[in-house]
Amino acid sequence: MTSPTSQHLNSYLADPTGTLKLTDVRIGRVRIGEMIVTGREAAIHAQEIINDACERTRRARLGKNGTRYPEPLPVAAPARLLSIEIRDYLADRERMGLARNTIEATARTLKLLQMACGDIPVSRIDHAHIYRLWDLLRWAPPLLLSDPMYRDWTFERAVARGKALRVDPPAPATAEKHRRFLVTFFGRLEHAKAIAASPMRVFAEVKKDLAIDPNKAERLFDEADLQRIFAPQTFIPWAMKAPHRWWVPMLGLYTGARINEVAQLKLADIVQESGVWCIRIQKTVDSDLSHKDRNRSRQSLKGKAAVRTLPIPQPLLDAGLLAFVEDVRACGHPRLFPHLSAGVRRDTGETNARYSQGVLNQFSRYMKGLGFPPGVGFHAFRHTIATELHHKGVPDEDIALVTGHSISKRVPVLHEAYFHKKPELARTKQIAVLEKYRPDVVLPVYQAGQFESALSDPRKFYP
Fold it and tell me: Whole-model pTM?
């Protein structure tokens, strides 16, 4: 826009203080007797009105006598309110089958966005609103979105509260997560032509922080650490209290599997392939949930790469894992660790699909009792096996066959459609990889019927 009216608006937007009064505005057939603008949001709205009028006038002059058909609305006008777009976007995330944790994290980011810019039409959100959001993320007080005390707080009040509390800044990874959620949200609106352009185009990826905290505990076990964890005089008394205490740490030690992958195992996940006993890390339907449209399984996986079949390392077989499997099979429960609960969401009644929480808390307390610092827990088994295999010269793609990490593939069709046709070849490679990892640990041997008392009371079982 180059008209005097546009120039006045642009000047006001550069310094939106006081009040701007526009009189006798004429654009084609549009007449505005008087327009009073107070504040930046009102100036943006006035600018949209002027732009709309200019676009209509331009189109009318393109034809010889204009057109008798209704003019199409310019892109993003009229736009829907941010709250409505957020509601529909999150519902679509549900439809796509995204993990509940991902949807909830996205909702938190978008709720902060609405707090930063107000419930305005999405077409009016620009880079300045994103700057306000960064400011809110920097100074948001703890529990801003969950504590009822903050329910009606404004952006200004929340930021002032955070500054008064001198809250720590978010980690770079957290800031980058918020940025990615916003890029996806505004990208969807842009593709749907709800907005002319995404305000996130100018915000690049957050630079990774290379600073090292010397006080942060190393998430890696050495031989002395492993011997301390599995020392018979401490491990056996602790582990004898429940079957999952006995086996989950051992499975983590020798497979590097995530704790929830181990905790949610079913008897059907222990299989024999071509004479090789294996553990299938997978997600299968629970028949009692078949009436639901979604979440038909109480199991969960981090992603597609997590689906894998692992040969059971020989030390676990020597420790009596198959004898324990038979004991559980005799009790009639479909899961390997029936005393662990997946949990239920209070708001929806759906499963949390987190069988790991109970054993994670128990193992963390055990580690604390052994003198390990906070932050060092079950996941360190995964770091340890991956690191040891790497230093033994095992290729990354072979380590990923065990750990279930995603590997970039030059020819993904071959990997996804053909390589799995020869599972025995993958097992041979996995066995060779796992043979290279032999920690200096002596595992206690399971005795058949060892948990007969615990497995004989179905009242203590969870579905």
Answer: 0.72
Rounded to the nearest 10 degrees, how much is the dihedral formed by the CA atoms of 37, 41, 45, 51?
A: 100
Examine the domain organization and report whether 86 and 51 are in the same domain. no
End residue of a domain, out of 140, 168, 202: 202
Is residue 228 domain-shared with residue 197, that is, in the same domain?
no
Residue type at 348 in one-letter notation? T
User: pLDDT digits over 300-349, tens only?
Assistant: 888 888 999 999 999 999 999 999 999 999 999 999 999 999 988 776 77
CA distances from residue 171 to 4, 211, 374 in whole angstroms, order as listed? 46, 11, 18
Question: Per the structure block, which two tokens stand in for 298?
Answer: 């109480």
In terms of Cα–Cα distance, which of 327, 320, 312 is closest to 271?
312
Task: Indicate whether 76 belongs to any domain.
Answer: no
121 and 169 in a single domain? The answer is yes
Asked if residues 44 and 27 have their Cβ atoms less than 8 Å apart, the reply is no
Decide: helix, strand or coil at residue 35: strand
For residue 205, pLDDT beyond 90: no
Same domain, 427 and 311: yes
